[in-house]
Write a structure and sequence with these properties.
single chain, 382 residues, alpha+beta, Helix Hairpins, HSP40/DNAj peptide-binding domain, four-stranded mixed sheet, three-stranded mixed sheet, 9 helices, 15 strands, elongated
Length: 382
């Protein structure tokens, strides 16, 4: 098949066809004649190359105008509309669309593979793990941290070029930041090895950053920890991550919070839990205990008479604050542990002995019930 065939006839469109019509016709034919669908067929291979060449010309307004006026002669011997130095064939993003239709996006690297033009690569995000106390989580605070990070070079202001000098368009990719190479029937696009995707080549690299536009620095940052944070809370410091190369945007710094173990309290969301020992006389007669809160205010807990070990008493509004102040404060839950005295004076022993002599069994119904059940069990066995 002659490569001099009329481009419009090759694509099967009218000479006044718009861009959408051209693309639709091209995609349909490219899928039909793609070598992977016609293995070993030389006619299909030639047809595939011809329609790529036709579409490459007609999709470009300047090339199309030259072709409409001069025909194929426009591209011979360096004539009007000749090559642009960036490789022939259909645009890579258009081939990417065809390959995606045939193989699926995952098989050809997805949409990211089809990007064209110069791209600024954002700097990397960083992570910092910070341990704070429960008191800090309750009240909030401002903490200063020191990190080692790649930051914008002050000498060249991140450009990578020595002050007073500039950069020029990369001669390898002509400013596109990417180059193409044909591998068999495929056109593969990759980052330009000369400019590393920047599209520009620095004439005289900055001595401080060696042309990178960034240098290693130690920075001290202030981190605002709001009240109500919990284990795993993440705080984002925008633009405080790694600086991008040659003036590209910096990444972010993420602070991950971890709670130190508290001596008294355990936490579940906005609820604070603690255990409080009380004397057996207070448990028997009732009374009141005082528990110091995280806000340094004393929380008074009333003990009802006859309370048992393990009983939990709830005090509303004495727990942790909700993050960002939404929902107020949670509760404090105090678990009562009745403590048996181990150091008694003779007088106390005498009083306890006198009390025991007056016991009828009705004072401690749980004990009486337990032993009654044991007796019934042995009676049944007998």
């Amino acid at each position: 098949m002659s490569v001099q065939a009329d481009y419009y006839e090759l694509l099967g469109v009218e000479r006044n066809a718009d861009g959408a019509t051209l693309k639709s016709a091209y995609r349909k034919l490219a899928m039909q004649y793609h070598p992977d669908r016609n293995p070993g067929c030389q006619d299909s291979e030639a047809k595939f190359k011809a329609i790529n060449q036709a579409y490459d010309c007609l999709k470009d307004d300047q090339k199309r105008a030259a072709y409409d006026r001069f025909g194929h002669a426009a591209f011979e011997n360096g004539g009007p509309g000749g090559g642009n130095g960036f490789g022939g064939g259909a645009g890579f993003s258009d081939l990417g669309d065809i390959f995606e239709s045939i193989f699926g996006a995952a098989g050809f690297g997805g949409a990211a593979a089809g990007g064209r033009g110069r791209q600024q690569r954002r700097g990397a995000d960083l992570r910092y793990d910070m341990e704070i106390s429960l008191e800090d989580a309750f009240a909030g605070r401002t903490e200063e941290i020191t990190i080692d990070v790649s930051a914008r070079c002050d000498d060249c202001d991140g450009s990578g070029a020595t002050p007073g000098t500039g950069s020029r368009t990369c001669s390898t990719c002509h400013g596109h930041g990417q180059v193409r190479a044909q591998q068999g029937f495929f056109v593969v696009e990759r980052t330009c090895p000369s400019c590393h995707g920047a599209g520009q080549v620095i004439e005289e690299p900055c001595r401080s950053c060696r042309g990178e536009g960034r240098v290693d620095k130690r920075k001290t940052l202030s981190v605002n920890i709001p009240a109500g944070v919990d284990e795993g809370t993440r705080i984002r410091l925008a633009g405080e991550g790694e600086a991008g190369a040659r003036g590209a945007p910096a990444g972010d710094l993420y602070i991950f919070l971890h709670m130190k173990r508290h001596k008294v309290f355990e936490r579940d969301g906005t609820t604070l839990f603690c255990r409080a020992p009380v004397s057996f006389t207070t448990a028997a007669l009732g009374g009141e205990i005082e528990v110091p809160g995280l806000d340094r205010q004393t929380v008074k807990i009333k003990i009802p008479a006859g309370i048992q070990s393990g009983k939990q008493l709830r005090h509303r509004g004495a727990g942790m604050p909700a993050l960002n102040g939404r929902g107020g404060r949670g509760d404090m839950v105090v678990q009562i542990d009745v403590e048996t005295p181990t150091r008694l004076t003779p007088k106390q022993k005498e009083l306890l002995q006198a009390f025991r002599e007056t016991e009828t069994g009705e004072e401690c119904p749980q004990s009486t019930g337990f032993f009654s059940k044991l007796k019934e069990m042995w009676d049944d066995l007998g």
